[in-house]
Every structure is written in structure tokens, then in C-alpha cells.
UniProtKB/TrEMBL annotation:
Full protein name: Rhodanese domain-containing protein
Species of provenance: Alexandrium catenella
Entry superkingdom: Eukaryota
Pfam family, one: Rhodanese
Residue span of region Disordered: 1-34
Record lineage: Eukaryota, Sar, Alveolata, Dinophyceae, Gonyaulacales
Biased amino acid composition, Basic and acidic residues: 1-22
Sequence ranges assigned to domain Rhodanese in this UniProt record: 67-166
Length: 185
């Protein structure tokens, strides 16, 4: 049984409060060394403590139409977690690229980016190709929450992922241009 007891749309209701806090991991500081970040991500990855670890499929989801409204209002930052081979030339305009492998293998590049996202303060919508159970969007979101100290209610997975988003855009009246998918190169 996951930690959420309310429907996935809880976070979409005005004034919705995040669930009660559980004991948190100590966040990695913004000036942590490559070795410390790698060790923290590996510790998270290898942890079997489900009581204190955010599982990737426990991260709240947001529907494409709500994501679109958040984008238009400037309330969120899209974070594209797809690896380059998954993008096939179709990138999200205005999305911050941040992959799980980058967090694990290239923390010297990832940590400054994560620090900028934290300072910005807007909620993050993490996007993988299909947002399947335990997909990269859930992994990156859980690492952002547990390892880097983002608030649980401030990180969401896009329901259905990029595939769902691009389909929704085809049928959405007046879709926001800055949120549209870039055409394959």
C-alpha cells in the first residue's frame, strides 16, 4: 500500500495540503562534492527502508490539462528526465533536462541545476516518455525529494508522460506555444 490515501488529483485542488510529513533524509547541500552526491544517490537507490524512502510510484501525478494551466500561469517548471535516446529529436521547449543517470554519474553538472530549481521555488513537473510505474520520472522525482530535500507537494510526475502530453497538445484548443513539443530535428 502506497503512502497516499487520497486520489491522485488531490494536488490539483486549490488549497490542497500535502500529506503529513514523515521522517526525511538529510538533504545533500548545494556545495556537496561529486563523491558525496554519488554516495547519497547510491544510498537512496540501495535503501530498502520503504517507511522513510519515497518510492517512485508514490510521487503525485498531474494531468496534462492541469500541467498546461500551471505552465500558462508560470506556476511550474517542466523537467525532462528522458535520456537522449528516448527523445528521438522531440524535446520539450522550456524544459530543464535532468536525467537519473546525470544525477548518478555526473553530479558536478546536476547539482548546480538542482540548486537553481530549488531557489526558483516553483513546483516541478517531471516528465519521462510514458510515465510508467517506476519510470525515470518517478526515480528522478523521488531523488529530488529524498536526496535533495524538495517538498513532496512540490514535485509531480506528468500523467502519461511526454507521449500523453504531445497527444493532448494535438487536441488542446490554444495550447501555450512555449509548452509545445519541439519538432524532431
Amino acid at each position: 500500500q502506497g503512502k497516499r490515501s487520497e486520489p491522485a488529483s488531490r494536488e490539483e485542488r486549490p488549497g490542497a495540503q500535502p500529506e503529513a510529513k514523515r521522517a526525511r533524509w538529510r538533504p545533500v547541500p548545494a556545495n556537496a562534492t561529486k563523491a558525496k552526491v554519488q554516495a547519497a544517490v547510491e544510498k537512496w537507490q540501495n535503501s530498502t527502508d520503504r517507511e522513510h524512502k519515497t518510492m517512485p510510484d508514490e510521487v503525485a501525478t498531474v494531468r496534462p490539462e492541469v500541467f498546461s494551466a500551471w505552465l500558462r500561469a508560470g506556476l511550474c517548471i517542466p523537467v525532462d528526465v528522458r535520456e537522449s535516446h528516448e527523445c528521438a529529436g522531440a524535446h520539450m521547449q522550456s524544459a530543464e533536462p535532468l536525467t537519473y543517470m546525470q544525477l548518478l554519474m555526473e553530479p558536478e553538472r546536476a547539482v548546480p541545476q538542482v540548486a537553481r530549481l530549488r531557489r526558483d521555488g516553483r513546483r516541478l513537473v517531471v516528465i519521462s516518455q510514458h510515465a510508467r510505474r517506476m519510470d525515470n520520472c518517478g526515480l528522478v522525482a523521488a531523488v529530488l525529494i529524498d536526496v535533495f530535500g524538495f517538498a513532496e507537494g512540490g514535485v509531480h510526475r506528468l500523467e502519461g508522460g511526454y507521449a500523453s502530453w504531445s497527444q493532448w497538445l494535438k487536441h488542446a484548443p490554444g495550447a501555450e506555444p512555449r509548452a509545445e513539443a519541439a519538432e524532431p530535428q
